Amino acid sequence: MTSRLLIIGGAAGPALLGRFVELAGGPGARIVVIATASSDPDAAEAEHLAAFDRHGARHVEALRLGDRVAANDPRVEPVLRAATGVFFTGGDQERITRIIGGTATDTLLQELVAAGTVVLAGTSAGAAMMSGTMIVEGEGPGVSRASVRTGPGLEFLPGVLIDQHFAERGRINRLLSAVALYPHELGLGIDEDTAILTDGDAFEVLGSGAVTVVDAGRATDIRTPEAGPITLAGCSLHVLPAGHAFHLTGREPRP
Amino acid sequence: MTSRLLIIGGAAGPALLGRFVELAGGPGARIVVIATASSDPDAAEAEHLAAFDRHGARHVEALRLGDRVAANDPRVEPVLRAATGVFFTGGDQERITRIIGGTATDTLLQELVAAGTVVLAGTSAGAAMMSGTMIVEGEGPGVSRASVRTGPGLEFLPGVLIDQHFAERGRINRLLSAVALYPHELGLGIDEDTAILTDGDAFEVLGSGAVTVVDAGRATDIRTPEAGPITLAGCSLHVLPAGHAFHLTGREPRP
Lengths: 255, 255
What we know:
homodimer, 27% helix, serine protease (chains A, B)
């Protein structure tokens, strides 16, 4: 089986949450909610447990990983090995990478996702951490170094930079800044109530908004001065609503 | 002589205003300020007259065109024929097209700009009206029909769609929406205190920000439904700070 990732730009509506339950096995799904990103995990867990329950998943539980001791606790392993779907809530993506990065939980999730036994989903911060390099913050005007700060993600989907709440928060400048600095990475801007569902080397767009792909791979001129505006000439851009697919290594929309 | 247009994204600093005076002839420049776009023309005229005076232009005057009768008044002609530079202030671009469009002033300005005897500058609304199609309004999230409303401009620079205050107001979605609807037009997003200076079929970028060019000319898939997100696959994008040039009909940055 190939690994399946459902990466949601925040504010997932019923259709996307229902799709996750279906991907995880429908009524037989065993879903684990991880609210490590949230500063109020009680609320985030309760909200998501109720939502997945409403969508017909019979086994839904929260796995509270509030610090690295918990993320290295051997009692995590049987919970995750029994799961068919794991869902990361929103909050602060650096809490996820700081608490889970390099722990036994991290290693085991990589194994289960690669083997295709677990569908891994994340929304907002839970989406950002999926990529090899994640956008941590940055709202500056224009395309510049000051407009973005990045850090390493958990690398479930290497070769991409993911931004979320994309249209709603007008984040294209920081995504363009990031791909100008790291043109190896494809920039994916995911709107709210919108997701990509990966299938091997491609993804499909789901939900009510669009995914914006920015590709500086064939840019002819990139200059990233310490201060002032970035030069980025020859960048490709694709705005893809639901129903479209994109090939990651080919760097182009798929018919 | 070729026509010279100085198209400013708003909030022009001293360097850009000084450059306009220099292009219009330096100390010998004869500058005419047209504040038709402004709802407070007294203030807009006074501000710009003082600025051009500070930059050493000895002949600076305001031409008050508050309605179509004024714009068709034969007394406009000697004023404009004596000018070496004409500057349109900001405000509401539809006031410019509604009051000046098709009048004797419009016809005469087209002639003088084409002949190269007048350098034509405009900031903000005065920039928007330069293009064949101008963006009138639209701030909706995402790339969609609802995100932009366009109308015909005065066509000093055909083949482009100009947006201003570009990075500062996060306007890329409305520019992408516009070029998806009208891929014939090159989309130019000009930041504040930033300008393009045209030279025949090319332009140079001046000022402290950047010009973002979006080009849907080679887009492979464009779908613009009445409601919901637009599809725009294969769009090219260039972020060009000062010192860069762009070839308009070639649709590519110039070395």
